[in-house]
Amino acid sequence: KGRRAGNTSGQGQGHASHPHPAGRPSLTRRLPTVVMACLLVFGSVDPIDARPPNIVLIMADDLGYGELGCYGASRCQTPRLDQLAATGLRLTDFHSNGSVCSPTRAALMTGRYQQRSGIDGVVTAKRHRQVGMAVAEETIADLLSRRGYATAMFGKWHLGYSPTLSPTRQGFAEFGGFVSGNIDLFSHIDQEGWYDWWQQGDLVAEPGYAPHLITDQGIDFLKRNHDRPFFLYLAHPAPHYPYQGPADQPNRRIRQGPRPADLVVEQTAPTLKGEDAAWAYRQMVEDLDSQVGRIVDTLTNLGVREQTLLVFCSDNGGIAKPGLGGDNGPLRGKKGQLYEGGHRVPAIFNWPGRVSPGISDQTALTFDLLPTFAELAGITPTAIPDGTSLRDLLGNSSSSGERWNSTTSRSTLARPPTELPKNQIGSRPCRPLPRHSEIRSVEQSQCRLVRKDRFPRVHRAASGLPTYCWPYPATGWPLSVNFPAAQSRPRETRSR
Predict the structure, then answer these.
(1) 24, 155, 172, 397 — which has fewest CB within 10 A?
(2) What confidence score (pLDDT) does residue 266 get?
(3) What is the pLDDT of residue 398?
(4) What's the helix, strand, coil split of the chain in %, to 5?
(5) Euclidean distance between CA atoms 234 and 221, whole angstroms
(6) Which residues, given as ranges, of the chain have pLDDT below 70?
(7) DSSP per residue over 342-407, as a string?
(8) Helix, strand, or coil here: 159?
(9) What percent of the chain has pLDDT over 90?
(10) Residue 402 has what pLDDT?
(11) Positions marked catalytic
């Protein structure tokens, strides 16, 4: 500090002993220009540093692994999502953090295992109306707001019913939608008979088909905020029950709780069953595809498509009901189960010119999204995430390296695996290995609870045998099991 060009004495005082000829800047003065030119030539300048990318996250509800055309479906036509997959990155081994709604959404919001925030089960409309995720948790919205993002969430919250636990108390500047697990898509009434359609922290009367209203609000938000970095989270209710297509009628009536003074009570029709329900389910999936297309078109028309990362995924596996829907493709099991059909879900990342098109079989989970968005935005979370940033994967879909060994991931700071007391992880009890688990044939003596630094991770056991970690958290924390060396990980066993 304080040295002049040409001063080799190390004292940092006076002028250079051999000043440059008049009109020629010194190397010191030219250095920033030279370095910048080199960086531009070699492609190391990242426009993210100048302005962070826009982020749009669209989450489906109960959409199975095999329900999109790009994942092999033939029953439903999903051209807009198929196009996003064709021009973006399609993940074939993406897992929701839970096999039911609330745990996955808690992990998504915090980037950490849902048990840390106390949401290891469904926040039900019947028994949990006064509880939810604590506002002290730092969410994606909190994080990106600190970076100057405009933030909004429209759709299904399912992390607390009270207005004190609303998304607007969790970092989102705007919220519109519902807070329960599911609503009548026309009358906006939850399964316990409460009216459930909100704007910010107030119940409002807003007639219309819920998926369309969610998209409408999302488009309005984009139009008002496209000139600054934005984070838009659209949590669609489709294709979760009740099964209602855009042309159907409401099924539920208000039975209890407050309601807007100007609410008009609509006439109801019987709940759809059999072939009618199956037809409605198909319409819900195809309409979801159309809503995604509306968002993509809006981004394009506003001229911000190339500055926007769009992510699509599901909160858990499909219901897998014969004759109805919820197709999990070749995967065994369904929503609510430990089998992969319960938590292995579609995931598409699309960012023109930035995300390498392709298909990746690298393992990823819902809670990886927060550290990914944080790294792209250039901001560090307050709490150390349990998830791992997928930024390197997005830039190189053909990468074959283990995600846990990424040189850019904060998870590389982890210490070696540590044995923990039986049925105990930290201060939280761990339920015994479930009998219906995919690994029930493995002897209990081969099972052990492991933790790598602050979270369970896939690792190699000291014996040299491969160790596999089930990400599904219904048993408290993921279990790791040592399989014989000759046995491979079961991936796509057919339902039976």
Answers:
(1) 24
(2) 86
(3) 58
(4) 25, 15, 55
(5) 11
(6) 1-49, 397-496
(7) GTEEEEEEE-TTTSPPEEE---EEGGGHHHHHHHHHT---SSPPSS---HHHHH-TT--S-GGG-T
(8) coil
(9) 67
(10) 54
(11) 101, 158
